[in-house]
Amino acid sequence: MQNFAILTAAAGVSDAQVSQVLSELVQPGDPVRLAASAVEIACASLGSAVAPQGCDLNLVPAQGRRKKMLIADMDSTMIPVECIDELADFAGVKDRVADITERAMRGELDFEAALRERVGLVAGLPRSALDECYTQRISLNPGARTLVRTMAHLGAQTALVSGGFTYFTARVAQAAGFAVNRANTLLFDEDRLTGKVSDPILGRQAKLDSLCELAQAGGFDAGDVIAVGDGANDLAMVEAAGLGVAYKAKQALRIGADAVLDHSDLTALLALQGIPQEEWVQD
């Protein structure tokens, strides 16, 4: 079966880097430049090829490359931060909360228990602190808006599914262009956080369930989905997708992903599907 080697880099892929990879591929075809940041080469396998410094190199099957749905994690994937960590800064407990977050994302802690503990530590914060947190700390990662808007323009479903909080996913989804967003709901009492979230907790299983449910509703299966995340909590979702992508991810997720991105922005997910820059929807 024919495959494609996809070479990507946020800083751009040079002709010299393409030549370096080309010489090591098994039965390579001619390189095709999808964008300044992405080149694809038809081949049988990667052979002994490795990614040049500052680049990502992934192998994807030629068949069924363009997906019908994008499902994405939010924290440290669509945005560069963990919202709960930034919110904790407003409560003066960022270091403590960030340590729990890091361990949970590595898969060392039970996600549900870790979430409840972290939310408990920000009890009493006013709603205005969430507003300030979003305004001052939250932005989209490079390529996020182009990825989501392009997928939607090409007819794909788009869903943001997070173990974080609906307060933030609703705003990030609107900024990026996601049609659907799902997350946990923070509880308030007279405009102050109670330190609790509503049940049930949206975690690893709920992300997988969302993928399956949304795909079924769209009339296709998990093989037609591209999923992207960064932590252990995304593993089931990424493994189930037809193309599962680990984006600047923890080791617990990298081992289960079809593609790993360390040096590329999120438009690399378009390149993995063979979508050239001429088809990208850019601001």
Automatic annotation (TrEMBL):
<dbReference type="Pfam" id="PF12710">
    <property type="entry name" value="HAD"/>
</dbReference>
<keyword id="KW-0460">Magnesium</keyword>
<dbReference type="GO" id="GO:0000287">
    <property type="term" value="F:magnesium ion binding"/>
</dbReference>
<dbReference type="InterPro" id="IPR023214">
    <property type="entry name" value="HAD_sf"/>
</dbReference>
<keyword id="KW-0028">Amino-acid biosynthesis</keyword>
<keyword id="KW-0378">Hydrolase</keyword>
<protein>
    <recommendedName>
        <fullName>Phosphoserine phosphatase</fullName>
        <ecNumber>3.1.3.3</ecNumber>
    </recommendedName>
</protein>
<dbReference type="InterPro" id="IPR050582">
    <property type="entry name" value="HAD-like_SerB"/>
</dbReference>
<dbReference type="GO" id="GO:0006564">
    <property type="term" value="P:L-serine biosynthetic process"/>
</dbReference>
<feature type="active site" description="Proton donor">
    <location>
        <position position="75"/>
    </location>
</feature>
<keyword id="KW-0718">Serine biosynthesis</keyword>
<keyword id="KW-0479">Metal-binding</keyword>
<dbReference type="InterPro" id="IPR004469">
    <property type="entry name" value="PSP"/>
</dbReference>
<comment type="pathway">
    <text>Amino-acid biosynthesis; L-serine biosynthesis; L-serine from 3-phospho-D-glycerate: step 3/3.</text>
</comment>
<comment type="similarity">
    <text>Belongs to the HAD-like hydrolase superfamily. SerB family.</text>
</comment>
<dbReference type="GO" id="GO:0005737">
    <property type="term" value="C:cytoplasm"/>
</dbReference>
<feature type="active site" description="Nucleophile">
    <location>
        <position position="73"/>
    </location>
</feature>
<dbReference type="GO" id="GO:0036424">
    <property type="term" value="F:L-phosphoserine phosphatase activity"/>
</dbReference>
<dbReference type="InterPro" id="IPR036412">
    <property type="entry name" value="HAD-like_sf"/>
</dbReference>
